[in-house]
Every structure is written in C-alpha cells, then in structure tokens.
Amino acid sequence: MRSRIDKTNLPTGIELLHDPTLNKGTAFTEEERDALGLRGLLPPRVCTQDEQVMRVLENFRRKPTDLEKYIFMAALQVRNETMFYRVVMDYIEEMAPIIYTPTVGQACQEYGHIFRSPRGIFISAKDKGRVADLLRNWPCKEVRIIVVTDGERVLGLGDLGANGMGISVGKLALYTACAGVHPSLSLPVTLDVGTDNEGLLNDPLYIGIKQRRLRGQGYDDLIEEFVMAVQDIFPHALIQFEDFANVNAFRLLRKYRGRVCTFDDDIQGTASVALAGLYSALRITGCKLEDQKILFLGAGEAGLGTGNLVVSALVDEGLSEKDARTRCWFMDSKGLVVKSRTDLDQENLPYAHDHEFLHDFPSAVESLRPTAIIGVCGKPGMFTQPVLEAMAGFNERPIVFALSNPTSMAECTAEEAYTWTQGRAVFASGSPFDPVKVHGKTLIPGQGNNAYIFPGVGLGVIACGAKHVTDEMFLVAARALAHEVSEADLEHVRVYPPLDRIRDVSAVIAAAVAEVACDQGLATKPKPENVPAYIKSLMYEPKYESYV
Q1: Lower CB density within 10 Å: C or N end of the chain?
Q2: Residue 183's closest CA among 82, 322, 96?
Q3: Which residue of the set 100, 111, 351, 540 is catalytic?
C-alpha cells in the first residue's frame, strides 16, 4: 500500500519543487540540491522537517479565522503533501476541525469564492458516455479508495452542488491522517449533476454547471456509468458514497453493495460511530443495550442507518428482529413514526410502532420516556431545556447525542446538555465542543465523528482486498471503537477516545474488519499470520525520503 519513489526518473529543478508528492522545500539536503538541480532555487540553509512544522504552525495559528486556516492548509497540501500530513497527524486535535467538520462546511458553502487549485475528478451531467476517459486522466493508477458525492446533502447544509468536492477531499485527507492510507491511493470525485440551490445558480463564481439537478433515469444512468467505469479503470477501489440525499442514498446502497465494493458513510459510518458511543455510554449508566428505548430525532440516512445497526447488534446479542426494532423510535419532519401513518417511506415502515401519532418532539419525549435521544435532524436547538429536563426527570443518566453537523446545526450544545440535566447527561456531538465544568467536575464531550470509523474500515477493506463491505464490518468496528474507550475517558463522561489516538484506534478497527472479511470469505488476499501487525505495516508515515 505504500507508494515507492522511482529515484531513477525524478523530475529536477523547478519541476521537482512544483510536484507536491515529491517536494521537500527547504529540507532538500546539500547533496540533493546538487544532484537535482535545486542549487540557488531554495534558500541556502537546509531545514529539518521539525523546523518546517514549526514554521507551518506559526503561520497557521496567525490566521484570523478558521476559514483562513482551511485555505492555508489546502495550499500546503498542494505544495508539500508530506508536510501537510506531518502537521495534520502530529496536531490532529487542532487540525481535524479545520480540514473537516465543522470548518469544511463553510468551505463548501464558499468553495467557488476560495477556489485556488483543482483537486480530484469532476464528472458533470454533460460527460455521459465518456466517464471512463475522465477517470483515465487521473495521474495515479493504483487507486484503492474513492470518495464520491453529488453534493445534494452536504452535512446539514443541504444542496451545495459541485462545491461538495470539499467533502470528498476532506474525507480522503482523514483516510491518510487517521488510518495511514497512502495519499496516492485515494481519489476524490464529484458528480456535478446540477443544483437546485438558487443562491449557487445565481452566483457568478459558482464552479459547477448552472442547471437544475438531473433526476430520474438520466441520473441513474450517469451513476451506473461511473460505478462501472471504476470497475474498469480502478478495479480494486472501494467506493464510498458521501452526502447523497435520502431519495438516492438508500436505493444506491441497495443497488450496488452486492455488485461492487462500496458503502455509504452517512448511513453506515454514522451508524457505527453512534453505536460505539451508545456502548460506551452504557458502561457509564451500567445498563444493557436491550434495556434501552432510543428516540431518534430525524429519520433520514443517519438515523435509520443507526437504528438498523442497533437492531443488528441486538439480534446478534440474542433478541428477535421484531423485539429489537421496538427499542428504536423515530420522529421525522411530520411527527412520530407510527403505524397509523400512510405517508411513510419503505425505510421507515419497520419502525412504525403502535402508538398515538404525536406532532412534536417534546410530546414524544414525555410520552415515550426514552433512555436516549439521538439528534440527526440538521435543525439546531431542538433539544430544548424542557426536553433535557424531562430526560433528566425520568433517567438518572440520560443519554443525549446531538450529532448534526456542523456545529451551527447541533440539536444542543454540550453546556446546555450538562447544565439542563444537572451534569448527569452522557453527551456526544457531531462537531467538537469545549470541556464543561459542572459542580466542580470537568466533563469532556465526546465527538461522534465518523473519522473514528470510516478510515479504519477502509484500511481493513483494502488491506485484505475485500470484495464487498458488509454490515457485520460496521458492527465489529463499533465494538472495537467502544473497547478503545478507557476508564479514564469514562471518568470524564467521554464516550470516545481522544482524537490524538485515532491512528491506533483505526488500526484496531482495520484488523477487526479484515478478520470479518476473511471469515466471511470476502478477502481476495491470504490472511496474514498476525493481522494487527500486518495492518500497522501498511500505514503511511509522512517522512521525507532521501533522493540520492
């Protein structure tokens, strides 16, 4: 999985300095400068990588806004890839909120206005019939991970069209930073099928095609052409669907999961990280998963995906599927999902229980008395003070997960969750929140970031050459992540491990996923004698190589 530099065919001079995969900037040695025609093109003093990191951090921290920091890091990535990943890996807790959530949301909203240099492959609705040719234009031929979006449902921000490329680029940066997947193995793709966002259609700097979204058979034909072209051009690549709207996400996953190696992160990755958080929360509350009543605010990809994985976990623990589903309740935009409703999608029907219809969330909380509420609706402030006080009224340790992204869309803040439950809530959020001190105790909010799951899953899949990605892989990933939460973490009511341990966590998840693939007969590579050691041996470390 590691890229090897062909030292016999290196570019020289300015051409070498303009190649982000090879450029070392001021770290080129005296010998390299003479051999590669760099003498005089660089300042005379040779700097170490550590000194370069110091310079990057000084300039990064000087930027006045998070968006300016995002632009700075994006520029570093296209100038010196090794340095970009060195900084991100070594300072992951500081960098992750900038290169991904929550800042990537604003970056996508303003993508056309901050655009500097193209990254990835843009496939538009006008490219039908020549998608394979576009993929062949990509310079790296050994692609193993593709993150593709059509930009219709970017985080909780809605239709951002071609600006969704920021999501694909950001996700793949996390594959490398969090799981050590070599950057040369990844490819970000945006399917620009138009947008229904009036603001973008009227924006003279919008980077996408200015037409309404392609729908129906034409849309399906383009997706089919893309998926089949990947099988031809990059036959060993895992395709990760990202930020597709509900109307397409579930059906595309159903259509392709048995045909190619693919998964949908918004459905399956979110489910896995949420289930891991529940497992950790139950270590704090001292209860079992089968004893929970979970009320989801939001019945889209994230909510239903999590409900389905919770059901799978309960069935694996001995419950019938029917009984397992009774533990999960859903509120959509119209109200409580119940049997008497005639307007439910097929994905919601398994969770339509016998109960009176309730229009609003506070009424549902009062009536159902859930042990856990999970917010995935993309509407801020929905976990109000009355809701959280009610949760604390009938639960000694209420579980409150406000998972909508970015931060501006969170159902409540960490401070609100802790304050309105007298510090008794077991809280997690989709975007980061600062620690909160309540009754003299410091509580550290857990961030239910998909970065805890998808990089490790992807690493495990490509390490064993899995032909398909299964629900069992996300179940073992959730359990592996929960197992990595220490007793010290739980003391601070932290339901996820610190982000600075993410590479170790990803390695554990990758090994668990690879084991499942081998056990299910899905691996195309022989099973190593020591799977964890093999996984770690594959992980990229951003250090400069000698070119002479």
Answers
A1: C
A2: 82
A3: 100
The average pLDDT across 407-424 equals 96
Predicted confidence band of residue 70 (pLDDT cuts 50, 70, 90): very high
Active site residue 63: no
What strands, in cross-sheet order, belong to the sheet with 426-429? Answer: 328-331, 294-297, 372-375, 399-402, 426-429, 446-447
Residue 351 known to be catalytic: no
DSSP secondary structure string for all residues of 231-244: HHHSTTPEEEE-S-
C-alpha torsion 418→421→426→429, nearest 10:
-50
Token pair 């610190």: residue: 498
pLDDT band at 8 (very low <50, low <70, confident <90, very high): confident
Q: How large is the average pLDDT for residues 131-136?
A: 98
d(CA 353, CA 157): 30
- Crossing angle for the helix pair 165-179 and 454-464, to the nearest 10 degrees: 70
**Residue-wise pLDDT tens digits, 496-506:** 999 999 999 99
Report the C-alpha gap between 163 and 207 in whole angstroms: 7
Residues linked to residue 402 through DSSP beta bridges, in sequence order = 375, 429
Strand 441-443 and strand 436-438: the pairing is antiparallel
Helix (H) or strand (E) holding 226: helix 216-233
Q: Please state, in angstroms and rounded to a whole number, the distance separating the CA atoms of residues 101 and 451.
A: 10
- Let me know: does 425 contact 418? Beta carbons within 8 Å: yes
**φ and ψ of 523, to 5 deg:** -80, 140
Model confidence at 3, pLDDT cuts 50, 70, 90, reads: low
| Long-range Cβ pairs for the range 50-53 (8 Å, 24+) | 52/25, 52/26, 52/27, 52/83, 53/83, 53/86, 53/87, 53/90
> In the structure, what pLDDT confidence band is assigned to residue 132 with cuts at 50, 70 and 90?
very high
Q: Give me the DSSP letters along 457-484.
A: HHHHHHHHT-SS--HHHHHHHHHHHHHT
Residues 6+ apart with CB under 8 A from 48: 27
CB neighbour list of residue 151: distance below 8 Å, 6 or more residues apart: 108, 159, 160, 161, 162, 163, 164, 165, 167, 190, 191, 192, 195, 208, 243
Name the catalytic one among 24, 69, 111, 171. 171
Question: For residue 156, what pLDDT is reported?
Answer: 86
HEC profile of 138-151: CCCCCCCEEEEECC
- Residue 536's identity, in one-letter code, is K
* Structural tokens at position 14: 């300015």
Domains and CATH numbers, the chain: 7-98 (1.20.1370.30), 119-260 (3.40.50.10380), 268-449 (3.40.50.720), 452-538 (3.40.50.10380)
Looking at residue 182, its pLDDT comes to 97
pLDDT at 7 (0 to 100): 73
The answer to which of 24-28, 61-65, 402-406 has the lowest mean pLDDT is 402-406
pTM of the model: 0.95
